[in-house]
């Protein structure tokens, strides 16, 4: 049984949904030593989030951005938390709907994702900047 | 400390929300050996999801299906990802709103769920077929 | 490697979103002994939920309550599950959208949250009463 834990930084991205599987894996060569285990990813922000979704079609990502903007719009008349810009309060709501962490099984040194699954960074701010994650890997070694 | 990990297949179900607690438990006799631990379930698909909800009333499940179809409808004019059918893009969005994994405490050989809690398979496609899960059990043995 | 697991009770709160980070930490002095690990929190109810969000502004919490009530309203004509009050079926849907568990990294004896992150209890019932959580802490000791 081993534990690895480190803080990693994802590159700044524009508002929207982005596949970051390779960027995350490149930060985590420790994955290769795990026979059976779990990768836990936690984003240390309240206006960006993590999810798993389709890893090929850019249309899925842009459709998700459009639909989340309809389901959780800017400038609702009942928002009182407006000081940080019209994108801020919707960003907080989206972050809770999508979630701030992921847990992914590790099997024989690799993330055990389905064929069409990728890790998404969901950037809900217009200018969110680089985002910090805590990655925790735990499991049995090879 | 022990680790068990296996892929399991849930039977095909029609579109909607389904209680699958017993089906999952029947695949996992290893639960009985764990004194304190965690069951991690991960669905290897992007158009079906897992959640915890009310385990008795069929009306809760059908009301959830109806409300998710209202909140995330088919045929929105701004969807560009339409090639795989009108149920496909909403299925991806629902999958991210509900989530692709569950973590449930194990206590004295049993899932430590509340009285009214069950594991739901949320099938978002009209014909999703059988769904693959990765189950990872880790914890202290009895 | 150590495992701690206990059931804790959060004080009853009115319907809405509430920061409970300190209340949770006060129940878990065991956190201080963990060098690298995970805190898993699981709520044993289907009409209340847990999330991570902004820990300072009361407006964020009340805006979230207002927006969730718009996104998942009471008294929709298609709800069949109405016996337990008009707040009940929306509470079940909100619980699945937000989720019944949290996993938070522990680093050097403390929850490794971002500066602005706190643990929210999301109480979806008008009179939900005290809520039970199962807290599981696992990791390497100092």
The total count of strands of chain A amounts to 8
- The helix/strand order of chain A is EEHEEHHEEEE
Helix/strand/pairing category of chain A: alpha+beta
| Tally of separate helices of chain A | 3
**Terminal-residue CA separation of chain A:** 10 Å
* Average pLDDT level of chain A: 98
Q: Whole-number radius of gyration of chain A?
A: 16 Å
Shape of chain A: elongated
| Beta-strand percentage range of chain A | 35-45%
Largest interface: A-B, 36 and 31 residues
Largest sheet of chain A, order of strands side by side? 1-8-3-5-6
Unreliably modeled segments of chain A: none
Could you give a short account of the major beta sheet of chain A?
5 strands, antiparallel
Oligomer: homotrimer
Estimate the helix proportion of chain A, in percent: 10-25%
């Amino acid at each position: 049984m081993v534990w690895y834990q480190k803080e990693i930084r994802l590159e700044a991205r524009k508002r929207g949904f982005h596949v970051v599987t390779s960027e995350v894996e490149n930060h985590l060569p420790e994955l290769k030593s795990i026979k059976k285990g779990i990768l836990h990813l936690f984003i240390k922000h309240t206006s960006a989030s993590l999810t798993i979704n389709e890893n090929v079609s850019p249309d899925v990502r842009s459709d998700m951005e459009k639909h989340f903007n309809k389901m959780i719009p800017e400038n609702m008349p009942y928002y009182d938390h407006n000081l940080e810009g019209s994108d801020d309060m919707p960003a907080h709501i989206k972050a809770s709907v999508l979630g701030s962490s992921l847990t992914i099984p590790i099997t024989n040194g690799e993330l055990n994702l389905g064929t069409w699954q990728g890790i998404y960074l969901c950037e809900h701010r217009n200018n969110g900047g680089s985002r910090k994650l805590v990655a925790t890997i735990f499991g049995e070694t090879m």
